[in-house]
Description:
By secondary structure, the protein is mainly α. The protein has 17 helices and no strands. Helix 2 runs antiparallel to helix 14, helix 9 runs antiparallel to helix 13 and helix 10 crosses helix 13.
Amino acid sequence: MKHDSTTGRLPFISKFAYGMGDVGCNFSWMFVGNFLMIFYTDAFGVSMGAVSLLMLLSRFWDAINDPIIGTLADKTHTRWGRYRPWLLIAAPLTAFILVLTFWAHPDWSETAKIVYMAVTYCILVLGYTCVNIPYGTLCGAMTQNIDERAQINTFRSVSAMTAIGIINIVTIPLIHFFGGDDTKQGFLVVAIVYGCIFAACHLFCFANTKEVVKVTRKQEQIPWRMQFKAAKANTPYLLALVGQQLFGVINYGRNADLVYYFKYVEGDSMLFSNYSLAIILPSIIGAGSFIWAFKWLRNKGWAAGFFSICCGISTVMLYFFSPNSSPVPFYIFAILTQFFFSGFNTAIYAIIPDCVEYGEWKTGIRNDGFQYSFVSLGNKIGMAIGTSLLALAMSEADFVANAAQNVEVKSIIHHCFSTIPGLLWILTGIVLFFYRLNRERYNKIFAELKQRKGSVEEYDCELREENQL
Length: 469
């Protein structure tokens, strides 16, 4: 596995392996995001109010563990690097916790179910953090070439969109296949299968990637107070954080709503698999289109903003059509929505590693894991807001699991599928048009950083020679 240290160019296998890491992430986290809430309410028998409270309060746990894991990853020293060892150790353990999370006990008391749900979910979130933060940070440690990073993140997003499409198409049929009328048994077997895929993909990523960007011991000993101060001075990073939080609200709130929409508004949960089949190819093409959008706009933030606004418009249009009564326009706008969403997904993650260089140039502090931990936290806070508000609204409207819903519940589910996320996508796009770190500015910053480091290394060499004399 050859890495060109002078140009930062990576072999195909490294890019592919990095993309496979996100395949693994989605077989855990997208499975959780799309199906855990309906598992809790319809298979485990937990009340919608308890689920809403868990999704909200668990983010306080994230606020503690995300920065800690990010800092620990930055300070890790092994022959494999700082971030890759976390994939090797944490992924198999997290896969085991995923299985426990989807192990339903509907005959338990309400209190016992809530305690079990809270404990397994919080441990699962911690395990996923131990994998996802080092994984996300690894991109910036593999190369400092802005175009190579764009390609790495395109591999990541294409792989992720493929995985998400497969998960959405096969999960409900697999639950029925493995469980029959016993839904809880179906969820458990699917969790075992997905847990194995999660672990295997991260082990493959570990084995076929390499960290080449070095950080000095002095950089690793910077106190948190100075790291927070440096992050506040990093304007591109702050915009990326806002974008990630809005992304979390929209993406996870809408994903949690999808199965409810097809089951309770359209009357057939199997329509979810048809919908997922229709959007899988646009997902892959949309993810790959980021490269051309970046070449055209020369600014990753603007590319993300463009995709976001287009996604918002097409998502709003879905409100006016139905897969039952008007399938052609419904699926046309569903395809457009997914195409633009996938382009946005690639762009928003491609921004993060470049912000690390900007921060190092402006403040002298490089803290990849610390910065990515707050990206992860922002995304999870968005997830908490999106899912808990959905659950709270449905609970207040008297949602009843596995029964016909009243008009108010159906209206909430319908708007959370279309108009609400659509308007939030447009807001996200407007925010990201303030991102100013374009290709030319980044290359200039990177050249200055190389010059500074070269001067420091030359001075250290002269100092060592004087000491030897």
